[in-house]
Amino acid sequence: DPNEDTEWNDVLRGFGILPPKEKPKDEIEEMVLRLQKEAEGKLHLFLFVLVKPYERMNLKELKEAEDDFDEADMKAVEMYRQQRLQEWKRLQRRQKYGELREICGEQYVKEVTNAPEDVWVIIHLYRTSIPMCLLVNQHLGLLARKFPEAKFVKAIVNSCIQNYHDRCLPTIFVYKNGQIKGRFIGVAECGGINLKVEELEWKLAEAGAIKTDLEENPKKDIMDMMTFSMQNISAHKNTNTKSSDVMKPNIT
């Protein structure tokens, strides 16, 4: 028994072969810990009882219990009711949106222009025959789930605008309060044929439609590389020009 108090075990402990003997916990220390836990439990119970009853009620229960509250309670209840209403509205909105919905031209005014004042609307006009449009729809579907507070819709362009030219597709409009706050028209403005969902997220965030957690433009590195390449090309041309000037014969 390694815990047995024998001379041989003491020798083995001295060489580190056996672990040190476990010291019995002090009875006073154990009592303090037990009393501390009991005190914490009583404090939690006290705080639970102390909480105003309306803070544990839903909107229906608040309405039914109005007669039981005094004037001070009624003010607190009204503030709490407004808080719960806002939470309920946010929940309803998250349940209402959260996906890329298909609409037609007849629904444009209702779904886009006349959307609630506090709602950002992103609408994509597209054609299924254009691959870039399909890519944008795929990305917008992901962003709609990530940002359910914004309204994401798509519409086949012919149902909204007749004779719209293919070179203007994809077309993304960003609306707020019935006004266009941002627009991306054509492949280049939408981000190019290699568009990534993070790049589109950044564009919509810049327009104000969503609040992204991205810290910088995902396309920044590519843009910096292009700028660096253009600077190198320009410097190379300048060097070649200077070299050519040196080699030119001096004609008098």
Automatic annotation (TrEMBL):
One of its GO terms (biological process) is protein folding. GO terms for cellular component: cytoplasm. It comes from the Eukaryota. SUPFAM superfamilies: Thioredoxin-like. Residues 56-209 form the Phosducin domain. It holds the Pfam family Phosducin. Gene3D superfamilies: Glutaredoxin (3.40.30.10). InterPro entries: Phosducin-like_chap/apop_reg, Phosducin_thioredoxin-like_dom, Thioredoxin-like_sf. Belongs to the phosducin family. This is PDCL2 protein.
